Amino acid sequence: MDLLRFATAGSVDDGKSTLIGRLLLDSKAIFEDQLEAVEATSNAKGYDYTDLALLTDGLRSEREQGITIDVAYRYFATPRRKFIIADTPGHVQYTRNMVTGASTADLGLVLVDARQGLTEQSRRHAVLLSLLRVPHLVLAVNKMDLVGFDQGVFERIRQEFVTFTQRLNVPDLAVIPISALQGDNVVTRSDAMPWYEGSSLMHHLENVHIASDRDLRDVRFPVQYVVRPKSDEHHDYRGYAGQVASGVLKPGDEVMVLPSGLTSRIAAIDSFTEQVEEAFPPMSVVVRLEDDLDVSRGDMICRVNNAPEPTQDVDAMVCWMTREPLRPRQKLAIKHTTRSARALVKDIQYRLDINTLHRDGDTRELGLNEIGRVTLRTTQQLLVDPYEQNRTTGSFILIDEATGTTVGAGMIN
Protein backbone atom coordinates (compact mmCIF):
# COMPACT_ATOMS: atom_id res chain seq x y z
CA MET A 1 0.00 0.00 0.00
CA ASP A 2 1.22 3.50 -0.77
CA LEU A 3 0.99 6.46 1.59
CA LEU A 4 -0.98 9.66 1.02
CA ARG A 5 -0.14 12.71 3.11
CA PHE A 6 -2.85 15.35 3.05
CA ALA A 7 -3.31 18.65 4.86
CA THR A 8 -6.66 20.14 5.81
CA ALA A 9 -7.26 23.88 5.85
CA GLY A 10 -10.25 26.13 6.31
CA SER A 11 -11.69 29.03 8.25
CA VAL A 12 -12.64 28.80 11.91
CA ASP A 13 -15.81 26.69 12.35
CA ASP A 14 -15.78 25.35 8.79
CA GLY A 15 -15.62 21.86 10.30
CA LYS A 16 -12.08 20.60 9.63
CA SER A 17 -11.68 18.76 12.91
CA THR A 18 -15.21 17.34 12.63
CA LEU A 19 -14.46 16.08 9.12
CA ILE A 20 -11.27 14.34 10.25
CA GLY A 21 -13.16 12.83 13.17
CA ARG A 22 -15.78 11.56 10.71
CA LEU A 23 -13.08 10.05 8.44
CA LEU A 24 -11.51 8.31 11.43
CA LEU A 25 -14.86 7.08 12.75
CA ASP A 26 -16.32 5.81 9.47
CA SER A 27 -13.05 4.14 8.44
CA LYS A 28 -13.02 2.25 11.78
CA ALA A 29 -9.79 3.96 12.90
CA ILE A 30 -10.99 4.89 16.42
CA PHE A 31 -10.79 2.70 19.50
CA GLU A 32 -14.00 2.18 21.43
CA ASP A 33 -12.64 3.87 24.57
CA GLN A 34 -11.70 6.96 22.50
CA LEU A 35 -15.22 7.18 21.10
CA GLU A 36 -16.75 6.66 24.56
CA ALA A 37 -14.59 9.48 25.98
CA VAL A 38 -15.67 11.83 23.17
CA GLU A 39 -19.34 10.89 23.67
CA ALA A 40 -19.03 11.53 27.42
CA THR A 41 -17.41 14.94 26.84
CA SER A 42 -20.11 15.84 24.29
CA ASN A 43 -22.85 14.91 26.78
CA ALA A 44 -21.13 16.93 29.51
CA LYS A 45 -21.21 19.97 27.23
CA GLY A 46 -24.93 19.48 26.67
CA TYR A 47 -24.70 18.47 22.98
CA ASP A 48 -27.35 16.17 21.52
CA TYR A 49 -24.74 14.77 19.10
CA THR A 50 -21.20 13.36 19.31
CA ASP A 51 -18.71 16.19 18.75
CA LEU A 52 -16.16 14.43 16.52
CA ALA A 53 -13.91 17.51 16.54
CA LEU A 54 -12.82 16.44 20.04
CA LEU A 55 -10.89 13.58 18.44
CA THR A 56 -8.38 15.99 16.91
CA ASP A 57 -8.50 19.21 18.93
CA GLY A 58 -6.20 17.83 21.58
CA LEU A 59 -4.92 21.02 23.22
CA ARG A 60 -7.00 22.30 26.12
CA SER A 61 -6.91 25.82 24.65
CA GLU A 62 -8.21 24.43 21.33
CA ARG A 63 -11.16 22.76 23.04
CA GLU A 64 -11.97 25.85 25.11
CA GLN A 65 -11.82 28.24 22.13
CA GLY A 66 -13.22 25.80 19.57
CA ILE A 67 -10.36 26.46 17.15
CA THR A 68 -7.32 24.57 15.87
CA ILE A 69 -4.00 26.17 16.93
CA ASP A 70 -1.22 23.65 16.36
CA VAL A 71 -0.80 21.10 13.57
CA ALA A 72 -2.38 17.82 14.67
CA TYR A 73 -1.19 14.69 12.87
CA ARG A 74 -3.49 11.68 12.62
CA TYR A 75 -2.82 8.29 11.06
CA PHE A 76 -5.26 5.78 9.62
CA ALA A 77 -5.49 3.21 6.86
CA THR A 78 -8.06 1.61 4.58
CA PRO A 79 -7.60 -1.60 2.58
CA ARG A 80 -6.40 0.53 -0.36
CA ARG A 81 -4.07 3.13 1.15
CA LYS A 82 -2.40 4.48 4.30
CA PHE A 83 -2.96 8.11 5.29
CA ILE A 84 -1.27 10.80 7.34
CA ILE A 85 -3.53 13.81 8.01
CA ALA A 86 -2.09 17.17 9.00
CA ASP A 87 -4.95 19.13 10.57
CA THR A 88 -3.60 22.65 10.06
CA PRO A 89 -4.94 25.82 11.71
CA GLY A 90 -7.02 28.21 9.64
CA HIS A 91 -6.42 31.50 11.46
CA VAL A 92 -4.04 34.02 9.85
CA GLN A 93 -1.89 34.25 12.99
CA TYR A 94 -1.02 30.55 12.63
CA THR A 95 0.07 30.76 8.97
CA ARG A 96 3.50 29.38 9.91
CA ASN A 97 1.84 26.27 11.38
CA MET A 98 -0.10 25.71 8.16
CA VAL A 99 3.06 26.09 6.05
CA THR A 100 4.77 23.50 8.26
CA GLY A 101 1.91 21.01 8.02
CA ALA A 102 1.34 21.38 4.26
CA SER A 103 5.01 21.43 3.18
CA THR A 104 5.16 17.62 2.82
CA ALA A 105 1.56 17.05 1.70
CA ASP A 106 0.56 15.26 -1.50
CA LEU A 107 -2.93 16.76 -1.35
CA GLY A 108 -4.50 19.84 0.17
CA LEU A 109 -8.09 19.72 1.45
CA VAL A 110 -9.75 23.14 1.78
CA LEU A 111 -13.07 23.26 3.62
CA VAL A 112 -15.67 25.99 3.18
CA ASP A 113 -18.99 26.45 4.96
CA ALA A 114 -21.80 26.20 2.40
CA ARG A 115 -23.64 29.01 4.23
CA GLN A 116 -20.64 31.39 4.10
CA GLY A 117 -19.19 30.50 0.70
CA LEU A 118 -15.60 31.41 -0.12
CA THR A 119 -13.96 33.63 2.47
CA GLU A 120 -10.69 35.55 2.57
CA GLN A 121 -9.19 32.66 4.54
CA SER A 122 -10.34 30.10 1.94
CA ARG A 123 -8.56 32.03 -0.79
CA ARG A 124 -5.45 32.45 1.37
CA HIS A 125 -5.28 28.72 2.03
CA ALA A 126 -5.54 27.98 -1.70
CA VAL A 127 -2.72 30.46 -2.38
CA LEU A 128 -0.51 28.88 0.30
CA LEU A 129 -1.13 25.36 -1.00
CA SER A 130 -0.29 26.56 -4.51
CA LEU A 131 2.85 28.32 -3.25
CA LEU A 132 3.91 25.12 -1.47
CA ARG A 133 3.41 23.22 -4.76
CA VAL A 134 0.94 20.74 -3.27
CA PRO A 135 0.05 18.83 -6.46
CA HIS A 136 -3.60 17.93 -5.70
CA LEU A 137 -6.32 20.16 -4.27
CA VAL A 138 -9.80 19.28 -3.02
CA LEU A 139 -12.44 21.86 -2.15
CA ALA A 140 -14.94 20.28 0.25
CA VAL A 141 -18.14 22.32 0.52
CA ASN A 142 -19.21 21.39 4.05
CA LYS A 143 -22.48 21.77 5.99
CA MET A 144 -24.61 21.12 2.91
CA ASP A 145 -27.32 19.85 5.31
CA LEU A 146 -27.70 23.42 6.63
CA VAL A 147 -28.55 24.77 3.16
CA GLY A 148 -31.00 21.96 2.35
CA PHE A 149 -28.51 20.16 0.09
CA ASP A 150 -29.14 22.89 -2.50
CA GLN A 151 -27.33 22.22 -5.80
CA GLY A 152 -27.41 25.92 -6.70
CA VAL A 153 -25.44 26.88 -3.57
CA PHE A 154 -22.81 24.24 -4.34
CA GLU A 155 -22.48 25.22 -8.02
CA ARG A 156 -22.05 28.90 -7.16
CA ILE A 157 -19.22 28.16 -4.71
CA ARG A 158 -17.60 25.66 -7.10
CA GLN A 159 -17.58 28.12 -10.00
CA GLU A 160 -16.21 30.93 -7.85
CA PHE A 161 -13.36 28.74 -6.59
CA VAL A 162 -12.51 27.38 -10.04
CA THR A 163 -12.30 30.95 -11.37
CA PHE A 164 -10.05 32.00 -8.48
CA THR A 165 -7.64 29.04 -8.86
CA GLN A 166 -7.09 29.83 -12.54
CA ARG A 167 -4.66 32.52 -11.29
CA LEU A 168 -2.75 29.91 -9.26
CA ASN A 169 -0.63 26.84 -10.00
CA VAL A 170 -3.21 24.12 -9.29
CA PRO A 171 -2.63 21.10 -11.56
CA ASP A 172 -5.47 18.93 -10.15
CA LEU A 173 -8.69 20.19 -8.53
CA ALA A 174 -11.76 18.33 -7.27
CA VAL A 175 -14.86 19.91 -5.65
CA ILE A 176 -17.05 17.71 -3.40
CA PRO A 177 -20.25 18.63 -1.45
CA ILE A 178 -20.29 17.04 2.03
CA SER A 179 -21.80 17.12 5.50
CA ALA A 180 -19.07 16.15 7.98
CA LEU A 181 -21.50 16.07 10.93
CA GLN A 182 -23.91 13.63 9.27
CA GLY A 183 -21.36 11.82 7.08
CA ASP A 184 -22.90 12.69 3.68
CA ASN A 185 -20.37 12.07 0.85
CA VAL A 186 -17.52 11.66 3.35
CA VAL A 187 -16.94 7.90 3.22
CA THR A 188 -20.05 6.81 1.32
CA ARG A 189 -22.13 8.52 -1.37
CA SER A 190 -25.11 10.47 -0.05
CA ASP A 191 -28.70 9.83 -1.11
CA ALA A 192 -29.52 13.41 -0.07
CA MET A 193 -27.61 14.84 -3.08
CA PRO A 194 -28.65 12.76 -6.12
CA TRP A 195 -27.62 15.65 -8.39
CA TYR A 196 -23.94 15.12 -7.45
CA GLU A 197 -22.41 12.50 -9.75
CA GLY A 198 -18.83 12.49 -8.43
CA SER A 199 -17.14 10.26 -5.87
CA SER A 200 -17.20 10.51 -2.09
CA LEU A 201 -14.29 12.23 -0.38
CA MET A 202 -12.82 8.94 0.89
CA HIS A 203 -13.05 7.34 -2.56
CA HIS A 204 -11.21 10.32 -4.03
CA LEU A 205 -8.49 10.16 -1.35
CA GLU A 206 -8.06 6.42 -1.93
CA ASN A 207 -7.77 6.74 -5.70
CA VAL A 208 -6.02 10.06 -6.42
CA HIS A 209 -2.91 9.23 -8.46
CA ILE A 210 0.26 10.39 -6.68
CA ALA A 211 2.95 8.06 -8.09
CA SER A 212 3.75 10.41 -10.97
CA ASP A 213 4.12 13.40 -8.60
CA ARG A 214 7.53 12.17 -7.45
CA ASP A 215 10.58 13.10 -9.53
CA LEU A 216 12.05 9.76 -10.65
CA ARG A 217 14.38 11.32 -13.23
CA ASP A 218 16.79 13.59 -11.33
CA VAL A 219 18.86 11.49 -8.89
CA ARG A 220 19.42 13.37 -5.62
CA PHE A 221 20.76 11.50 -2.57
CA PRO A 222 21.90 13.81 0.27
CA VAL A 223 24.33 11.95 2.52
CA GLN A 224 23.17 12.01 6.13
CA TYR A 225 25.65 9.68 7.81
CA VAL A 226 28.77 7.67 6.92
CA VAL A 227 28.36 4.06 8.08
CA ARG A 228 31.65 2.50 9.29
CA PRO A 229 30.93 -0.36 11.74
CA LYS A 230 34.67 -1.27 12.13
CA SER A 231 33.72 -4.64 13.60
CA ASP A 232 35.64 -7.85 12.80
CA GLU A 233 32.74 -9.02 10.65
CA HIS A 234 32.39 -5.72 8.74
CA HIS A 235 35.91 -4.29 8.99
CA ASP A 236 35.95 -3.07 5.36
CA TYR A 237 32.29 -1.89 5.20
CA ARG A 238 31.78 1.73 4.15
CA GLY A 239 28.38 3.06 3.18
CA TYR A 240 26.51 6.34 2.97
CA ALA A 241 23.13 6.55 4.67
CA GLY A 242 20.34 8.93 3.72
CA GLN A 243 16.88 9.33 2.22
CA VAL A 244 16.42 9.37 -1.55
CA ALA A 245 15.13 12.84 -2.43
CA SER A 246 14.41 12.03 -6.08
CA GLY A 247 15.38 9.73 -8.92
CA VAL A 248 16.08 5.98 -8.93
CA LEU A 249 19.38 4.45 -7.77
CA LYS A 250 20.52 0.97 -8.89
CA PRO A 251 23.73 -1.07 -8.40
CA GLY A 252 26.08 -0.47 -11.32
CA ASP A 253 24.90 3.11 -11.93
CA GLU A 254 27.65 5.66 -12.53
CA VAL A 255 27.31 8.48 -10.01
CA MET A 256 29.07 11.68 -8.97
CA VAL A 257 29.63 13.02 -5.47
CA LEU A 258 29.22 16.76 -4.99
CA PRO A 259 30.80 19.15 -4.18
CA SER A 260 34.05 17.23 -4.89
CA GLY A 261 32.96 16.11 -8.39
CA LEU A 262 34.52 12.64 -7.91
CA THR A 263 32.83 9.78 -9.77
CA SER A 264 32.28 6.09 -9.03
CA ARG A 265 29.71 3.34 -9.48
CA ILE A 266 27.16 2.02 -7.01
CA ALA A 267 28.40 -1.33 -5.65
CA ALA A 268 25.29 -2.16 -3.61
CA ILE A 269 22.27 -0.61 -1.88
CA ASP A 270 21.32 -1.81 1.61
CA SER A 271 18.05 -1.35 3.41
CA PHE A 272 17.62 -2.04 7.12
CA THR A 273 17.18 -5.78 6.57
CA GLU A 274 18.57 -6.67 3.14
CA GLN A 275 20.16 -5.54 -0.10
CA VAL A 276 17.76 -3.97 -2.59
CA GLU A 277 17.91 -3.81 -6.37
CA GLU A 278 16.78 -0.19 -6.57
CA ALA A 279 16.06 2.78 -4.31
CA PHE A 280 13.53 5.53 -4.98
CA PRO A 281 11.88 8.33 -2.96
CA PRO A 282 11.19 8.36 -0.08
CA MET A 283 13.25 5.24 0.79
CA SER A 284 15.97 5.48 3.45
CA VAL A 285 18.95 3.34 2.42
CA VAL A 286 22.72 2.92 2.63
CA VAL A 287 24.57 3.32 -0.67
CA ARG A 288 27.94 1.61 -1.13
CA LEU A 289 30.35 2.75 -3.85
CA GLU A 290 32.99 0.74 -5.73
CA ASP A 291 35.70 3.31 -4.95
CA ASP A 292 36.81 4.57 -1.54
CA LEU A 293 36.02 8.28 -1.99
CA ASP A 294 36.04 11.17 0.47
CA VAL A 295 32.30 11.47 1.19
CA SER A 296 30.83 13.05 4.30
CA ARG A 297 27.55 14.38 5.71
CA GLY A 298 26.17 17.19 3.58
CA ASP A 299 27.56 15.82 0.31
CA MET A 300 25.17 14.72 -2.43
CA ILE A 301 25.23 11.70 -4.74
CA CYS A 302 23.75 12.39 -8.19
CA ARG A 303 24.11 11.48 -11.86
CA VAL A 304 27.23 12.57 -13.74
CA ASN A 305 25.27 14.47 -16.41
CA ASN A 306 22.37 15.56 -14.22
CA ALA A 307 23.61 17.45 -11.18
CA PRO A 308 22.16 20.28 -9.08
CA GLU A 309 23.77 23.69 -9.46
CA PRO A 310 26.16 24.54 -6.59
CA THR A 311 25.52 28.12 -5.48
CA GLN A 312 26.14 30.52 -2.62
CA ASP A 313 23.48 32.97 -3.82
CA VAL A 314 19.96 31.79 -2.97
CA ASP A 315 16.80 33.45 -4.28
CA ALA A 316 13.75 32.13 -2.42
CA MET A 317 10.26 32.73 -1.11
CA VAL A 318 10.54 32.79 2.70
CA CYS A 319 7.80 32.34 5.30
CA TRP A 320 8.93 34.15 8.46
CA MET A 321 8.00 32.39 11.69
CA THR A 322 9.06 34.56 14.63
CA ARG A 323 8.09 37.89 16.17
CA GLU A 324 11.46 39.58 15.59
CA PRO A 325 11.23 40.67 11.91
CA LEU A 326 13.56 39.57 9.12
CA ARG A 327 15.71 42.46 7.88
CA PRO A 328 18.53 42.94 5.33
CA ARG A 329 22.08 42.31 6.62
CA GLN A 330 20.74 39.86 9.21
CA LYS A 331 22.91 36.78 9.83
CA LEU A 332 21.29 33.36 10.30
CA ALA A 333 22.12 29.66 10.12
CA ILE A 334 20.67 27.79 7.14
CA LYS A 335 19.95 24.06 6.85
CA HIS A 336 19.44 22.66 3.36
CA THR A 337 18.92 18.87 3.07
CA THR A 338 21.75 17.52 5.27
CA ARG A 339 24.10 20.49 4.80
CA SER A 340 24.37 23.36 7.29
CA ALA A 341 25.94 26.77 6.70
CA ARG A 342 25.61 30.40 7.70
CA ALA A 343 23.69 32.93 5.62
CA LEU A 344 23.51 36.70 5.21
CA VAL A 345 20.23 38.33 4.14
CA LYS A 346 21.25 40.43 1.11
CA ASP A 347 17.86 41.85 0.19
CA ILE A 348 14.10 41.58 0.61
CA GLN A 349 12.71 42.05 -2.90
CA TYR A 350 9.02 42.16 -1.97
CA ARG A 351 6.40 40.99 0.51
CA LEU A 352 3.58 38.91 -0.96
CA ASP A 353 0.03 39.72 0.13
CA ILE A 354 -1.40 36.21 0.11
CA ASN A 355 -4.96 37.54 0.08
CA THR A 356 -4.61 39.63 -3.10
CA LEU A 357 -1.30 38.29 -4.57
CA HIS A 358 -0.05 41.90 -4.57
CA ARG A 359 3.74 42.29 -4.37
CA ASP A 360 4.81 45.06 -2.00
CA GLY A 361 8.25 46.13 -3.28
CA ASP A 362 8.64 48.96 -0.75
CA THR A 363 8.89 46.69 2.29
CA ARG A 364 12.16 46.56 4.21
CA GLU A 365 11.30 43.70 6.55
CA LEU A 366 9.16 40.56 6.93
CA GLY A 367 7.06 40.17 10.08
CA LEU A 368 5.62 37.11 11.80
CA ASN A 369 3.64 34.85 9.38
CA GLU A 370 4.53 37.03 6.36
CA ILE A 371 5.88 35.63 3.09
CA GLY A 372 8.30 37.45 0.80
CA ARG A 373 11.00 37.03 -1.82
CA VAL A 374 14.45 37.12 -0.24
CA THR A 375 18.03 36.80 -1.52
CA LEU A 376 20.66 35.18 0.69
CA ARG A 377 24.43 34.73 0.52
CA THR A 378 25.73 31.55 2.18
CA THR A 379 29.19 30.71 3.53
CA GLN A 380 29.19 27.34 1.75
CA GLN A 381 27.91 26.24 -1.62
CA LEU A 382 24.46 24.64 -1.45
CA LEU A 383 23.39 21.98 -3.97
CA VAL A 384 19.96 23.28 -4.91
CA ASP A 385 17.13 22.70 -7.37
CA PRO A 386 14.08 24.92 -7.94
CA TYR A 387 11.33 24.13 -5.41
CA GLU A 388 8.79 23.51 -8.18
CA GLN A 389 11.09 20.77 -9.52
CA ASN A 390 12.11 19.17 -6.23
CA ARG A 391 10.44 19.98 -2.89
CA THR A 392 13.33 18.41 -0.91
CA THR A 393 16.41 19.96 -2.55
CA GLY A 394 14.43 23.14 -3.27
CA SER A 395 13.64 23.96 0.36
CA PHE A 396 15.53 25.02 3.47
CA ILE A 397 15.02 26.34 6.99
CA LEU A 398 16.56 29.38 8.66
CA ILE A 399 17.74 29.12 12.27
CA ASP A 400 18.54 31.76 14.90
CA GLU A 401 22.11 30.90 15.90
CA ALA A 402 21.72 32.35 19.40
CA THR A 403 18.66 30.33 20.39
CA GLY A 404 18.63 27.42 17.92
CA THR A 405 15.02 28.29 17.03
CA THR A 406 13.70 27.75 13.50
CA VAL A 407 12.71 31.24 12.38
CA GLY A 408 11.98 30.82 8.66
CA ALA A 409 11.23 28.32 5.89
CA GLY A 410 12.28 28.90 2.30
CA MET A 411 11.30 27.71 -1.18
CA ILE A 412 14.02 28.26 -3.80
CA ASN A 413 13.02 30.00 -7.05
Can you describe what's shown?
By secondary structure, the chain is an alpha+beta fold. The protein has 3 domains: 3-213, P-loop containing nucleotide triphosphate hydrolases (Rossmann fold); 220-303, Translation factors (Elongation Factor Tu (Ef-tu), domain 3, Beta Barrel), CATH 2.40.30; 309-412, Beta Barrel (Elongation Factor Tu (Ef-tu), domain 3). The chain has 7 helices and 20 strands. The protein has helices at 16-26, 32-44, 60-65, 95-102, 120-131, 151-165, 201-207, and strands at residues 3-10, 72-77, 82-87, 107-113, 136-142, 172-177, 220-222, 225-227, 239-243, 254-258, 262-270, 284-289, 300-303, 309-320, 331-336, 339-352, 359-360, 371-384, 395-399, 406-412. The strands form 3 sheets. It has a 7-stranded antiparallel sheet with strand order 7-13-10-11-12-9-8, with no helix packed on it. The chain has a 6-stranded mixed sheet with strand order 2-3-1-4-5-6, with helices on both faces. Residues 59-69 have low confidence and may be disordered.
